[in-house]
Specification:
Largest sheet of chain B: none
Largest sheet of chain A: 2 strands, antiparallel
Structural class of chain A: mainly alpha
Number of strands of chain B: 1
Radius of gyration of chain B: 21 Å
Distance between the termini of chain B: 21 Å
Number of domains of chain A: 1
Strand content of chain B: under 5%
Structural class of chain B: mainly alpha
Oligomer: heterodimer
Helix content of chain A: over 70%
CATH topology of chain A: Arp2/3 complex 21 kDa subunit ARPC3
CATH class of chain A: Mainly Alpha
Shape of chain A: globular
Largest interface: A-B, 55 and 51 residues
Order of helices and strands of chain B: HHHEHH
Order of helices and strands of chain A: HHEEHHHHHH
Chain lengths: ~220, ~110
């Protein structure tokens, strides 16, 4: 990635990571079990995002990985989800040859910021439409995955600007290839996983969702 | 009762998901064609990660070819070890916290 974009993406990402640290410090005092939850979801995002799943799509056989930021954004909030994604991406860049240090800011922007916020708002929108908990989670997971790869497409598309290419054309081409090469299938799988996880948490410990503000009132029945 | 039904559904979905992902070549293989299937023709490209096949391709196209990482673990079985260790540690952290949050005494 050219130096100007490295600096740009880091400049965009760092305030979100800083706000995430502030939110963790504040929420760990308010919500018991918040730190174990951050640990669990942090590890989940790390494992999800370096777990290549083989999928057959229109372009043949390929592997791709889910992101996990939709799930963490719904449960922890979007800012803490950015922080969790940043830590996972840093470890992957350092030790797993997955991602990179110069592209870390760009990866935090696509997977952390776009993935978390799109998943969070998709969940809230689905709740307003009175969808049941599974479908709210499904949309959060699917939309976060789609937006993560849209973010990557934007970052790659921006590279053509200095090369007399059309940004929109390049971005659309790259996003299309992503969707045809297994990611289109995988975003549906990620949606199902997030939906099931939310239903599991609700059935096992609804108080967690209530305290985290995922559901409003435990006394009302939440359709699952 | 409801929980058992839920666990049953989860198990069924889990098995279906594993079947589709692990045995997808067998489930979707096309047989009886005169021409070699695309999967055989592109054997070297089969199961390539899209981070490599898409991001790598376009980054190279726009003048940024991939280079070795600063800490290069892609040597022999070292990468396998690192991924396995990451999976084990990640799995332990997830399992420990799931137990603490959902099944512990202080829940």
């Amino acid at each position: 990635m050219p130096p100007q974009w490295v600096i740009t993406w880091f400049a965009v990402s760092i305030p979100f990571v800083g706000t995430g640290i502030y939110h963790v410090k504040r929420k760990k005092r308010q919500v018991p079990m918040y730190l174990p939850l951050v640990g669990m979801l942090g590890a989940s995002v790390f494992v999800f995002s370096c777990f290549p799943i083989p999928v057959i799509a229109l372009n043949g056989m390929a592997t791709s990985h889910p992101c996990g930021t939709g799930m963490s954004a719904v449960l922890l909030g979007p800012f803490v989800s950015v922080l969790v994604a940043a830590i996972a991406l840093l470890i992957q860049a350092l030790f797993l040859a997955h991602g990179g240090l110069t592209t870390l800011g760009g990866n935090i922007f696509s997977m952390g910021i776009l993935g978390s916020f799109s998943g969070y708002f998709a969940f809230k929108l689905a709740q307003r439409c009175k969808l049941n908990l599974f479908w709210c989670g499904f949309l959060a997971g699917m939309v976060s995955d789609l937006f993560t790869y849209l973010g990557t497409s934007i970052e790659l598309g921006l590279l053509v600007i200095n090369k007399d290419g059309s940004f929109l054309k390049a971005m659309a081409e790259i996003f299309w290839v992503f969707m045809m090469t297994s990611q289109g299938v995988l975003c549906v799988v990620e949606g199902v996983v997030v939906g099931l996880v939310l239903v599991f948490v609700y059935k096992r410990r609804p108080g967690i969702l209530l305290r985290l503000g995922v559901i409003k009132d435990d006394t009302k029945s939440v359709p699952v | 009762m409801i929980r058992n039904r839920f666990l049953y559904k989860v198990n069924i979905l889990h098995i279906a998901f594993l079947m589709v992902t692990l045995f997808s070549p067998a489930l979707f293989a096309q047989t009886g064609k005169a021409e070699a299937p695309a999967t055989q023709a592109n054997e070297n490209e089969a199961w390539t990660g899209i981070d490599v096949s898409v991001v790598g391709k376009y980054a190279t196209k726009y003048g940024r070819p991939p280079r070795d990482p600063y800490i290069n673990t892609d040597k022999g079985d070292l990468l396998l070890f690192v991924f396995t260790a990451a999976g084990v540690i990640g799995g332990f952290v997830i399992g420990f916290n799931v137990h603490k949050i959902f099944y512990g005494k202080n829940q």
